[in-house]
Amino acid sequence: MEKSSLITLALSKGRIFEDTVPLLQAAGIEVPESPENSRKLILPTSDPNLRLLVVRASDVPTYVQYGAADIGIAGKDILYEHTKEHPGGLYQPIDLDIAKCRLAVAVRQDFDYEAAVKQGARLRVATKYVNVTREHFARKGVYVDIIKLYGSMELAPLVGLADAIVDIVSTGGTLRANGLVPVEDVAPISSRLIVNQASLKTRAKYLQPLIDAFAAASQGK
User: Fold this and answer.
1) Does residue 17 contact residue 72 with C-beta atoms inside 8 Å?
2) What is the pLDDT of residue 122?
3) Mean pLDDT value of segment 121-140
4) Structural domains for the chain
5) Is 80 helix (H, G, I), strand (E, B) or coil?
6) How far is Cα 2 from Cα 20, in angstroms, rounded to an integer?
7) Average pLDDT for residues 82-102, to the nearest whole number?
8) Which is nearest to 23 in space by CA: 189, 214, 212?
9) Angle 68-128-18 (CA atoms, 0-180°, nearest 5)?
10) Mean pLDDT score, 134-143
């Protein structure tokens, strides 16, 4: 195998990894190991020219943009924040339509969100999606103080840190368990295939067949 023919695909474990495996299988590629059962961060596939890099979801665009991975799969939520802060260097050819969920505003069940928004009061909003949150409320003409958190977002309204949160919602089970309710959708979320632009220019003969295979597999889901 030529070293130049080796393609590195970055993705995160969990739902994105689980939803990606069937797409790879549709392209004739098997993944013999799961990151849930292995401590390895670099996983081989049945294709000697393709390896998987398992990283944090928020780091996938960084690995791809700076060339540590040729190609990656990341949610639109992550990509929006990344491209706002680090424009350029990423090509986003395909919405794979996997790991679907939504970005939503959620509050305590006893919080009158509609009244607070109509009054134009300054809201405190906890989120790790700073840019999309700021733009969402700006479009509504609502002033917000954004508190950046990286996890356990549901705690913020419960302990008085914030009036609302903006976070990923799938089934809503975690919100309900913590006495919160979604009150407004911000954006639908799915995962996209992303490609390092320099890799695509210099190694297209290796990358394009894989991009085409992902496109065909996602359309045939």
Assistant:
1) no
2) 86
3) 93
4) 3-99+190-219 (3.40.190.10), 101-189 (3.40.190.10)
5) helix
6) 26
7) 91
8) 214
9) 55
10) 91
